[in-house]
Amino acid sequence: MTQKTALTRNLGHAFTQASLLTQALTHRSHGTPNNERLEFLGDGVLNCVVAHLLYQRFPTLPEGDLSRLRAHLVREATLSEIALKLSLGEHMRLGDGEMKSGGWKRPSMLADALEALFGAIFLDGGFAAAHAVIEKLYAPLLEDMDPKAFGKDPKTFLQEYLQGRKLALPEYVLLATEGEAHCQSFRIECRIPALNISAQGAGTSRRAAEQQAAQAAYELVK
In the annotation, is 98 catalytic? Predict the structure, then answer.
């Protein structure tokens, strides 16, 4: 089994126009034709399909919440995670400079290539084919998605979680301040005495450090 065959099997789409798959995997550093135009097309297809999937899965959610969920699902971090699971970087065609600098594992490049693939599938098999592939890849994410968790910062979400269980609010304790006044780093501990839980976070501001500590604490209590 060739690398491309393995990739198309994982995608669930067999290309009738092999040149589209090659183009989708070609970064501009390698030459032309490259995947930039396909990325533009794939971005539009992805947004439409994800909107449709969310509309079907959460029939009572208002427009604002649906928009926040979609933004989370189509962001670079999410796309690069999906691309990593597909081992997409191993199939990309890069110029020597990008290859030596590790471009094949750069999140932005992986996300762009995945969008280009969606665009290529759309041109090769139509909207139904692209919809089927995106739905397959996003199924695990949609299955675990809790709409209430999005649009709120970690401190707010942790506070509501504890209040819902009639537990005392967390305590945030400054452990250390490091660096010069213009470039400080703060280390904060989030403590939940009722559950005997504590977690630390760091950031360039107290607020950022508290948010990180709250996120870490929530991972321990959920």
Answer: no
